[in-house]
Design goal:
With 152 residues, this protein is mainly alpha-helical. A hairpin with a 7-residue loop joins strand 2 and strand 3. It is built from six helices and three strands; from the N terminus they run ααβααββαα. It is globular. It has a single domain, classed as Winged helix-like DNA-binding domain superfamily/Winged helix DNA-binding domain (Arc Repressor Mutant, subunit A, Orthogonal Bundle), CATH 1.10.10.10. The protein has a three-stranded antiparallel β-sheet.
């Protein structure tokens, strides 16, 4: 096999692993009537509340339109609220409600359990190697200059 063939095989393996992991997380979140994108919004807000929809979209690598629809649904479900920014009355800061904070915690716990059952079973030295390889790959992807905005 050539270097290119090996790289392509590993690429496809990584993509399939990502898809399979995302599906496993989606199955666990379904128990809370929560989608992966909704969970992403809620858990991101646990790190820093009061972001604008534009900041949230950039942080999650999705379009502003996708974030708008997600936030609309989360507002309707009573999980987040929009607060008008004093500095710009056209913009809103997104905040968790108590119900949203509780659901975010459950989503985080579901993901932590999955990680403990999978990545957590890898020996620390090998996990550190994997982490180093992923950082190296991230930098190679960034160096391509490709845009990172995507659909949610």
């Amino acid at each position: 096999m050539t270097q290119d063939t090996d790289a392509l095989r590993v690429w496809f393996r990584l993509i399939r692993l990502h898809t399979r992991s995302r599906m496993a997380i989606a199955n666990r979140l379904r128990a809370y009537d929560l989608s992966v994108p909704q969970c992403d919004v809620l858990t991101t807000l646990t790190e820093r509340e009061g972001m604008s929809q534009q900041e949230l979209a950039a942080r999650l690598y999705v379009t502003k339109g996708n974030i708008s629809g997600l936030v609309d649904r989360l507002v309707a479900s009573g999980l987040v609220e929009r607060r008008t920014l004093q500095s710009d009355r056209r913009s809103h800061a997104i905040h968790l409600t108590p119900a949203g904070r509780d659901l975010a915690r459950k989503g985080i716990e579901a993901q932590q359990a999955f990680v403990a059952e999978t990545f957590g079973r890898i020996e620390p030295e090998r996990l550190a190697q994997l982490d180093g390889l992923l950082v190296e790959l991230r930098e190679l992807v960034r160096a391509t200059g490709e845009p990172i905005e995507q659909e949610a």
